[in-house]
Specification:
Helix content is 49%, strand content 15%. The protein has nine helices and seven strands; from the N terminus they run E-H-E-H-E-H-E-H-E-H-H-E-H-H-H-E. Bound molecules: NADP nicotinamide-adenine-dinucleotide phosphate.
Length: 248
Amino acid sequence: MLTLEGKTALVTGASRGIGRAIAVELARQGADIAVNYAHNAEAALQVVAEIEAVGRRAVVLPADVGDFAQAATLVEATVNALGRLDILVNNAGIIRDTLLLRMQEADWDEVLRVNLKGAFNTGKAAARLMARQRAGRIINISSVSGLMGQVGQANYSASKAGLIGLTKSMARELAGRGITVNVVAPGFVTTDMTETLPEKLREQLLMLIPLGRFGAVEDVARVVAFLASDAAAYITGAVLPVDGGLSM
Ligand code: NAP
């Protein structure tokens, strides 16, 4: 049911963590993949090798998604390399955590620029192409922090809540063109991003998660693959938490 054979996908921030798992899972389901990253070329090349090992095509495309021109070029380069673009996953994200009273203007600006403006930048460029195809899937990776707020994450939570508004507006505007736009909102998932959480906070968080564990990157990747597939054809503007029950 989940087959993505013949499709192509651009996954932003696919060199590590959740993005990497999404890229590999979409490839396993049959899609060819554009692997975007910002700094870590070596890691991105490993992802390409992993995708090629499952028999799909992959291309590495460095770009800062927060830069409007670079994001447009990224989408164009995906089509030039793979022939078309069926699935866009806006996964690239950063944190600059600190309490509001200590937060610098630059901490706010950079997180909003990458996490929120990045999805606008790539989403706008991809929507133009997908509208011509009269088909497409856009999946934005938000966070439980965007649903609930989080101490020390005013910038990050605002960016991730903003993604939900962006998604719903895009879903309404693009539905008539055969494009669905949805959000996946992960809870705490074991990646580089959560590695630095203090042990005490980790223990407190675990007590709040009904399923009693942090998520694995594959927990998120499988849900993204579902939303990218024909099985999810009648879902748009949805926010799907993948958080072990944390946000309910
Ligand atoms: P991660 O391990 O820190 O990886 C972040 C990825 O984003 C890397 O591939 C990085 O590329 C890329 N990136 C950063 N800035 C970029 C930019 N300006 N342009 C393009 N790519 C950029 O993060 P993660 O934990 O996998 O998180 C992935 C997404 O899930 C993020 O949007 C995050 O907010 C969201 N999320 C994560 C969790 C969690 O618990 N981990 C929970 C909820 C939501 P380089 O390797 O080149 O630096």
